[in-house]
Design goal:
By secondary structure, this protein is α+β, with helices and mostly antiparallel strands. The protein has helices at about 15-20, 25-35, 40-45, 55-60, 85-90, 210-220, 220-225, 350-360, 365-370, and strands spanning about 80-85, 95-100, 100-110, 115-125, 145-155, 155-160, 165-170, 175-180, 185-190, 200-205, 240, 250-255, 255-265, 275-280, 295-300, 305-310, 310-315, 320-325, 330, 335-345.
Length: about 375
């Protein structure tokens, strides 16, 4: 990667490929977003064009990307909460091809530069009439560094490689959920001819962030390999599948009244602090709460109301909300049903443990991440 090693340059295009992977954009889409030619954008990706300050500022103004992803980690301030309406999400709709066919429709949902989430609404456009993992219509990706929690709506097939590198398929329906770990190849199709189903794919960072990648890059591959010198004492499954019908409902009370139905969704021991829930309000209330974790909220019901920092907001289906740690909020109205993903910030856990779980074979990808997550 010597083409990115010019120490006189303040900015670098080294992380641009990873940014595209995280935001599920190909170079053509990215070039259009930046109003530049694909040839010039490819030069940035290949280290043949200097990423100047003007372009660095443009990238951070268009995409939910922090300036530290392009230089050194400092800060970018964001509000305590953000809201993205379903109408705004629809405007980000884009069709992604795999192997020359329309494969996914992507839509952005709420994002914050300081949050660990990179969540997307994804509609599967490839219909399959069987559940074979060898179906010729499948287009597998290479996996990605981000952890992923997925909530399913409709008749969707989830394909993945297990720990023995065998292809597997999970037959998923509305309410089912799953977790998939870093660099596990996977893909999705639909069993509905109308392609009406979709997934909420909440990808998120934990310990192996760009800060860690930059630190490993500073050490170099040879020295970084020493972090993989010992085998992990315990190996966790990198894929978890949870069927909705097997989930028990827990009643949550306040002032001796049951106000919520709570279902705990798919989780992983690899990121013990990451939690996902389906919450339904069964009684109007004003129960205020505050979390030490980042909260991503997706509205599943037709409508409902929340209180955030003393202000009431009315929401509709497919609206999304991000809430920063230590921000007061409440789920107010009966009938409101939401998906909640809760993830800790950077002050928790053991970074080396996750490096061990990802594996030494992925060290180069962790450091550079300079290839797309799927083949064009």
């Amino acid at each position: 990667m010597n083409k990115f090693n010019n120490k006189t340059q303040i900015f670098s295009g080294l992380r641009l490929r990873q940014i595209l992977n995280d935001l599920k954009r190909n170079p053509k889409d990215a070039a259009m977003d930046l109003n530049m030619s694909l040839i010039e954008f490819e030069k940035l990706l290949n280290g043949k064009k200097i990423l100047d300050e003007k372009l660095a500022r443009e990238i951070t103004s268009i995409w939910p990307v922090k300036i530290i992803n392009l230089i050194n980690p400092y800060f970018d301030r964001e509000p305590n909460f953000k809201i993205m309406r379903a109408t705004a999400s629809l405007k980000t709709s884009r069709t992604m091809k795999r192997g020359g066919i329309d494969y996914y429709e992507y839509r952005d949902t709420v994002m914050s530069k300081n949050a660990p989430f990179r969540p997307e609404w994804i509609r599967e456009l490839s219909y399959v009439s069987n559940n074979s993992t060898s179906n010729r219509l499948l287009r597998w990706n290479r996996g990605h560094l981000l952890h992923q929690f997925t909530y399913f709506v409709g008749e969707i097939n989830f394909y993945y490689y297990d720990k023995n590198h065998n292809k597997k398929v999970a037959i998923m329906n509305t309410g089912d959920s799953m977790y998939i770990g870093p660099y596990v190849p996977h893909t999705f199709t639909t069993r509905n001819k109308d392609c009406s189903g979709f997934i909420i794919a909440i990808t998120y960072t934990d310990k192996i962030s760009s800060d860690i990648q930059n630190e490993l890059l500073d050490y170099g591959e040879k020295k970084s390999a020493k972090f993989f010198s010992d085998l992990p004492k315990k190996s966790y499954d990198k894929v978890t599948v949870l069927k909705y019908k097997n989930i028990k409902t827990k009643k949550i009370s306040h002032n001796k009244n049951n106000i919520f139905n709570l279902k705990t969704l798919a989780s992983t021991k690899l990121v013990k602090s990451a939690k996902s829930f389906e919450l339904e309000v069964i009684k109007d209330n004003k129960c205020m709460q505050s979390d030490l974790s980042h909260q991503y909220i997706y509205v599943l019901s037709k409508k409902g109301s929340m209180m955030i920092e003393g202000k009431k907001f009315n929401f509709k289906n497919n609206d999304t909300i991000y809430i920063k740690p230590c921000t007061n909020y409440a789920f107010l109205t009966k009938g409101l049903k939401v998906l909640i993903m809760s993830v800790d910030g950077k002050i928790s856990g053991d970074t080396q443990l996750q490096l061990l779980q990802i594996g030494k074979k992925n060290l180069k990808r962790i450091i550079y991440d300079d290839i797309g997550w799927f083949k064009q």
